[in-house]
Automatic annotation (TrEMBL):
HAMAP family: GreA_GreB (MF_00105). This is Transcription elongation factor GreA. Keywords: DNA-binding, Elongation factor, Protein biosynthesis, Transcription, Transcription regulation. The lineage of its organism: Bacteria, Pseudomonadati, Pseudomonadota, Alphaproteobacteria, Rhodobacterales. InterPro entries: GreA/GreB_C_sf (IPR036953), TF_GreA/GreB_CS (IPR018151), Tscrpt_elong_fac_GreA (IPR006359), Tscrpt_elong_fac_GreA/B (IPR028624), Tscrpt_elong_fac_GreA/B_C (IPR001437), Tscrpt_elong_fac_GreA/B_fam (IPR023459), Tscrpt_elong_fac_GreA/B_N (IPR022691), Tscrpt_elong_fac_GreA/B_N_sf (IPR036805).
Length: 158
């Protein structure tokens, strides 16, 4: 059985957009670049040819990876979820109990996680600690820098 990969609707759209770009724009561009480099003669010392072949290899690998992710995607629309306990797709505001600094995260799938954008990987230690908890609860998380305590301020699905 193939494991489904949880992904938000926005994450799914981004995967499809990247796949479309790779197939319709980047793949044809690299094929043209390889053809041009071949016309320059001796391929053994042709840096453009080798760079284009390497780029082609990356593009084909990424296309296969994206097709696999898309075929296994379990698209979850956070706006259709509800409840007070934290689960995939929830947008959570937490306060660091030491500094009172507040941060807002959305729990998303591995493929769309980007901590700089507040997209928290569901497999991360913080997300695992938050799952099942509710606003008002405190969680302890072991981070690379040591233990951290957070109070959950709010839980929303949007």
């Amino acid at each position: 059985m193939v494991d489904k990969v949880p992904v938000t609707a926005a994450g799914y759209a981004a995967l499809n957009e990247e796949l479309k770009d790779l197939k319709s724009t980047q793949r044809p561009e690299v094929i043209r670049a390889i053809a041009e480099a071949r016309e320059h003669g001796d391929l053994s010392e042709n840096a453009e040819y080798h760079a284009a072949r390497e780029r082609q290899s990356f593009i084909e690998g990424r296309i296969k990876e994206l097709e696999g992710l898309i075929s296994r995607a379990d698209v979850i629309d956070p706006a259709k979820l509800s409840g007070s306990s934290i689960k995939f797709g929830a947008t959570i505001t937490v306060a660091d109990e030491d500094t009172d600094e507040e941060k807002t995260y959305q729990i998303v799938g591995e493929t769309e996680a980007d901590i700089a954008l507040g997209k928290l990987n569901i497999r991360s230690p913080l997300a695992r600690a938050l799952i099942g908890k509710e606003a008002g609860d405190s969680v302890e998380v072991m981070t690379p820098g040591g233990g951290k305590s957070y109070e959950i301020i709010s839980v929303a699905f949007r």
